[in-house]
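Many introductory courses stop at the sequence. We go one step further.
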Amino acid sequence: MSKAMAILAGVTTVAFVGGTFAVTQFAARPDCGLAPSGDIGGPFTLMDEMGRTVTEAEVIAEPSLIYFGYTFCPDVCPLDNARNAAAVDILADEGLSVTPVFISIDPTRDTVEVVRDYTDNFHPKMIGLTGTEEQVAAASAAYRTFFEKEEGDDEYYLVQHSTSTYLVLPDEGVATFFGRDDSPEHIAQVTACVVAG
């Protein structure tokens, strides 16, 4: 092999390995150990369904699936929250207790009462959180989520937002995250493996 070919092969290998790391750095490892969090997650102060001010330490009392969305979301949020609730039920059948958590990124419309009614429709264990604009923005920033209100009607506007679900462990933080295409079964399988590990 010529020197030029050897250098090219080395560069290709480095590029491949680097790309693979970038894609998988937040995914659960094959052994389901905790993946690098990339500094995702952290402290937050929000308001629960009873109007009480709570912190992440009070909310994340057991393994939790955290999702950022809003109650007026026409399609994505209901599907994702229903899927997360289904994963929690699968895990319960396996003897594992996991809490689904919904954090609103639309505090203007998502009052305590609205969030409570919304989460009650998905699962009796689901915790709904809202807060001031500053509190919600801080929580979103901690989890590196994105949201932006669309221009238009002051009452019936939409909010563009990211749709990851985070598996968070008490005192440890984010273990991994799931995307829109992940099924309840997959979420339950990975969660069970991480929790058991």
